[in-house]
Amino acid sequence: MGRRNRKGDPVHGWFIVDKPEGVTSTRTVAILKRLSNAQKAGHGGTLDPLATGILPIAMGEATKTLPYVVDNTKEYEFTVRWGVSTSTDDREGEVVETSDNRPDRAMIECAIPSFMGVIEQVPPAFSAIKVAGKRAYDLARKGEEVVLAAREIKIHDLSLVEIIDDDHAVFRVVSGAGAYMRSLARDLSVALGTVGHLIKLRRTRVGPFSLDTSISLDELQGFGHIAAVLECLLPIETALDDIPALALTGTEANQLRHGQSVSLLRKGDLERVATLGKGDTVLATDRGKPVALTEYYAGEVRPFRVLNL
Q1: Strand (E) or helix (H) holding 206
Q2: The whole model's pTM is what?
Q3: Which CATH number fits domain 13-71+208-239: 3.30.2350.10, 3.40.50.300, 3.30.950.10, 1.20.272.10?
């Protein structure tokens, strides 16, 4: 039998959505896929339904570049409520413990440095991490005990933005991949001699994508026709700003498209890769359009992700 055609159009690029509260990341992807009539889509880092903010959505061949977004730095603002811990470490869970202790500004600012740099963090029991092949949140919802191992994460910056009142404080965080803000709020509370949970979370940046380049889901849904939606699509290479680019000839680009390595013989090309090490990633382009993600090895580039555009 012949290969079944995908439904939809070959849409390639990024939608940077300002996700509203109450919608899952998976649902947001499905909405954008429908609005753009795209064949394929995926998101660059889950946001809980409670959270708002930047959700990069990759369309078509842009999905091949998702790791460069998911593994990038992220920026958040979150609000903690002191004195109450919950089963989910956010306001949607059941209360499991209370405390009369409330930290003041001096205590908070004294505790912050111990949560910066490379630290160990235990993810929330209600998370998408797999335990024996099952999602932790599925086990937790069934009332089963979920024990997750601590793992190393990196907090690049953590600062106190505002003390709203005795019970609430707002923080700004810049983190590496894999960090849970719910866990950070929980652990910070414990370090301050109380308990606490996250009541508000907004992601303001993911890698090169910020609120300045985003568009709300409501606005996208209000356009009413595909052409207007597609005007908000950003090029694939927008996610690859940190990767060195190398312009190739049409013949060389075709070699990469067929999985073949390309030797760099021109002086200009060799100068551009002079600072690269073995196995470093290079974005190969043809007339300004991305062709493939390649690895550099001793005077040549080898394709490992070909972009079929």
Answers
A1: strand 196-206
A2: 0.88
A3: 3.30.2350.10
